[in-house]
What does this fold into?
Amino acid sequence: MTEPRLDRTALLTGWSRTAPTAARVVEVHDAADVDANLAGAGRRGLIVRGLGRSYGDAAQNAGGVVLDATTLAGFHEIDVERGVIRVDGGVSLEAIMRTMVPLGWFVHVTPGTRQVTVGGAIAADVHGKSHHVDGSFANHVESFVLHTPKGTQTVTADSDPELFWGTAGALGLTGVIAEATIRLLPIETSMIRAENLRCPDLDSVMALMAEGDDDHRFSAAWIDCLATGASLGRSVLSRGDHATRADLPKKLRRDPLRFAPKALVPAPPWAPNGLLNRLSVAAFNEFWYRVTPSLHGHVESISSFFHPLDGVKDWNRLYGSYGFLQYQYVVPDDAHDAVRRSIEMLSEARAASFLAVLKRFGPGNPGPLSFPQPGWTLALDIPATVPGLAELLDRLDQLVADVGGRVYLAKDSRLRPELVPVMYPELDRFAELRARVDPTRVLQSDLQRRLCLP
Amino acid sequence: MKDALGSVQSVLVLGGGSDIAAATVRELVRRRARTVVLAARDPQSLQVTADELRAAGATTVETLAFDARDTASHDAFVADVFDRAGDVDLALFAFGVLGDQEEAEHDGRAAVDIAEVNYVGSVSMAVPIAQRMRTQGHGTIVAMSSVAGERARRSNFVYGSSKAGMDAFFQGLGDSLVGTGVRVMIVRPGFVHTKMTHGMDAAPLSTTPEAVADAIVRGLARNRETVWVPSQLRYVMSVLRHVPRPVFRKLPI
It folds into this structure.
């Protein structure tokens, strides 16, 4: 057995840049590295980390080992006929798009950034604007190779459903995904036929989504959380579908599968604290709502439609040194009132949210820790310095739990641990799975300790 | 673990019987803290606070005997607490004695006692605690210093010098811990109305244990290195620090 290499001690945070902790970060280059590290992890255990886009502490392990999987990033098989690829767990969605879009294939599910690894996408069971049609990321995974402390196995939804679905959303706590085989979606062009609809209030946007989502593959609304009174919940609903060749203007038809996202513009290495405050965000929201034309049938590139923030490298630094919090909940379809109440609470607290996105989820999958379930999901980011934020979010948690909803653990950084079994009622199934694949609890993370996950 | 807003889940309080410690740990339990270890010379005196914390939602509250003067026992004490509690997210250094300035000026033993508890005791506990926190990769040490340590005054320089030494030690410790996930926050309250100061004349800008607790919690959320309570004292002291000594010693403070 090779000795695990102790590459460096580093202070790690999630994308929100809050709650740093120190860990030994070890680069892995092959499957043997993964096994050696699992075997030699020590008392504080091990967690795997990809591109660090989890907002909270899911990919941190204070005092333990953090495996850096981004060096495990090879393509093994590309089946251009069936649209199936077998890649290493550290391959990013960006790399997949750059390779596969020109060949006429796109991922079924992309979150708001391409800068996530395949392993991370499964571990968080990420979702995107197409959830009501496509479900979440794990729904399109044929198999993955999982290294657990009890051994390595190739897992499919048929061969070992408990382990397959238990890994979706488990944030690395069932093992290290060294390789995955995923199914892609055929596309005729690399463009999205999109439309933006201005909605004056919450009821109108929710009604529009409930009626019209089925006609579109992509649908999500940006909500102005600072609007009050009759304008509460005013929003811009953005919908779209993959464009066909015929949808493209002539100029673009010559190279319909071109995928060339613009080079990154870096955010300044420092930003003044308080740059994103209530006034600047209110001004932005007003501007965004007013200038967004009610466009019908224009075409947009994949990066502009799905990943607008990917154009700014390290945009998380714009929040200054205190960082920010991302918060996302889902409540059942009939819990309209909870959505309204939550937006009222945010609006009353004058908690400036630069990005608040409302979306309707379709059916969830059997993963006990997978976040999506049918209903309304609202995602927000809020500067960590908003006064009374801890109490506000605690009240939101309670509101969400009371109507049978849940918050997204991959984004969480402050949930009360008592609420985890309430929000994820199948936690016992997850505990059984952990006992099976990791009886001595080699797999540990800050999030797992903080939320007292089994 | 700590969370993104500075709340912690397990707390060790040294000097758990002090009013400031009790107010602070109440505030921490009101947020997220569930495991609390209260330590003081007389653990019996901690029962009321312990019961209160249990009622407020803490699931594990232990009371332990701890003597700041008995430095030989400190390493074992720290090992025992960390082994029992698992991770300690926050250690609050709230023990200390005010002593009697009059007596300390004339009786070496009395002066040494103040120095031993406030300075030597802090150093002796902080080193093994910092070591354990380094190993766990995270942790926060909150050190109750005092404005008296900012510049020792004629009227209580024995106490003041012990706090000055302690304060300087924790500043250096904090610097040495950068990059380890462990941090040190120094709290410098002015005159606080507590058991310790009962019967004394309150100085200007006096404050309460609850206000100190509140400032500590806010300081944790904002990753502060130094917290003054009330915050104006920072500016008052930055002036007083530069007052020439012949003038300073005559000031009625």
Q: What stands out?
A: Residues 10-248 of chain B form a domain with the Rossmann fold fold (CATH 3.40.50.720). The first strand of chain B starts at residue 10 and ends at 14. Chain B has a mean pLDDT of 95.
